[in-house]
Amino acid sequence: MMSPRKKRKPLKLFIFSGAALLLAYLFLSPSKQATEEQKVQAKLQGVLEHRSWIAKAIGPSVRQNNLPVKTEIIWDGSNRIVQPTYTMMPELQAEADKILKSYKPDYGAIVLMDAETGQILAMSSFQKDNPTADNWTLHASFPAASVFKVVTATVAVDKAGVMPEQKIHYNGGAYTLYKKNVMSDKITRWTNTISLKDAFARSINTAFGRLSIERLMPEDINDYATRFMFNQEIPTDFPVDMGIAYVPPDKSFAFAEVVSGYNKTNRMSPVQGAMIAASVANDGKMVIPYIVDQLKDEEGKLLYQASILDRGNIMTKESAAKVRELMGQTVAKGTSRRTFSSILRSKKFREVTMGGKTGHLTGDDPKGRVDWFVGYAFDENHKIAVSAITVNKQYWTVKSSYIGQSLFRKYFSLPKVEEAEAPVIAN
After folding, report:
1. 201 vs 44 pLDDT, higher one
2. According to the model, what pLDDT value does residue 32 have?
């Protein structure tokens, strides 16, 4: 049965400059407001420290695809032997493992998480020629490819006010990207016209390049890439490599390559891919993932209870709805329509809303053709996000979008337990 989700008030992850903190103390202290802020910051610091301690303790094992039953950890300055309780759901973990072992891509990784809490529900990694390879879910060596279009689309709707129905004029092919087409604003009888919604769903590179040259600013793309947690450490309780996004400072062809995901420079991990999809499903609020729910010492005493940690809204609720419209179009009529057609027609999943984004590019670490799917599914009571990636040297064995819909199907077929109240951990 599905475990009851614990209702905990999240801690917001803010990054304060030294000057900002000084001003807070000068103008607010010793007021009650300042005192409350100090308490919140103290709790936040405690959560971050605890996650860091846990990551150091279990990190080597997690990188080797193992979740230790017992581990030694430095806790409050002393060595302790602890027993972790993990967030993974056995049915979903088994399903993720089964898919990768059945289809045997050259490389594969799956991350499934609760979009509202950050709990990792399944984490699976596979390498055909090396069963003991590192955990690929943690590696940020994969080109972000067209998944980066989620960042670009968010800037378009949240910052530039572009509507999903906005028409874009572009020249050239749908999936290529040539400088002569992107940098030219000429409209001829051969010029194509497409809406933002359809350009996103079909992943039309030149349309995104033209939209960005005409309507978007490099500093805004860089800002929103940071909001989506590129170029910074993700404060999880397990080790995740940092995603990289370099945005050229001017409206050059290189800028058009970045915003359309047509480059190998911008890279991310499957964990970050799940976070990106989760933030869209969660009305623009990004939560930080975690895998350890509790720690108990050898006597069974509770040392640690996980808290929800979020970094606030990275877009407005209205903008998140617009991005969901784009991602919904992807699974309904876009690049994932074939793999999602049966589940979208099924009466069993009629109340489940789904969306996603695909991405394809040849990578070099590991070498092969990268196939991404990041997406979400939710009903009235549950929101989940998935990130699936396969890399193949020659032949395809399974599409990542198929992996995504398979896990959605499995999750919403499980018996649900009504949400239960639990003590509020973070205020």
Report:
1. 201
2. 59
Contacts of 30 (CB under 8 A, 6+ apart): none
pTM for the predicted model, two decimal places: 0.90
Torsion angle of alpha carbons 117, 91, 104, 328, nearest 10°?
-50
Longest dimension (CA), the chain: 77
- Cα–Cα distance measured from residue 131 to residue 210, given in angstroms and rounded to the nearest whole number: 44
In 3-state terms, what secondary structure has residue 220? Answer: helix
Percent of the chain with pLDDT over 70: 89
Q: Which residues contact residue 411 at a Cβ distance below 8 angstroms, ignoring those fewer than 6 apart?
A: 92, 112, 121, 377, 382, 384
Q: Taking the CB of residue 217, how many other CB atoms lie within 10 A of it?
A: 15
CB 335 within 8 A of CB 180: no
Q: pLDDT over 90 for what percent of the chain?
A: 81
DSSP 34-46: HHHHHHHHHHHHH
Q: How big is the chain, counted in residues?
A: 427
Distance CA 45, CA 42 (A): 5
What sign does the CA torsion over 92, 93, 99, 105 have?
Answer: positive
Can you read off the two tokens belonging to residue 364? 């070099």
Cα–Cα distance measured from residue 249 to residue 27, given in angstroms and rounded to the nearest whole number: 37
Residues 351-373 have a mean pLDDT of 96
Phi-psi region of 98 (alpha: psi -120 to 50; beta: other; left: phi over 0): alpha
Residue with tokens 């803010």: 14
3 state SS of 3 = coil
CB-CB neighbours of 84 under 10 Å? 22
Q: How wide is the angle at C-alpha 266 spanned by C-alphas 253 and 184, nearest 5°?
A: 15
Alpha-carbon radius of gyration of the chain: 22
- The structure tokens 């000057």 sit at 19
Q: Which two tokens stand for residue 32?
A: 């009650």
Partners of residue 143 on adjacent β-strands: 267
* Helix (H) or strand (E) run with residue 24 in it: helix 18-28
- The encoded tokens of residue 352 equal 């489940």
What's the rounded Cα separation, in Å, for the pair 412 and 419?
A: 15
Average pLDDT over residues 137-160: 98
Nearest to 396 by CA among 375, 359, 373, 368: 368
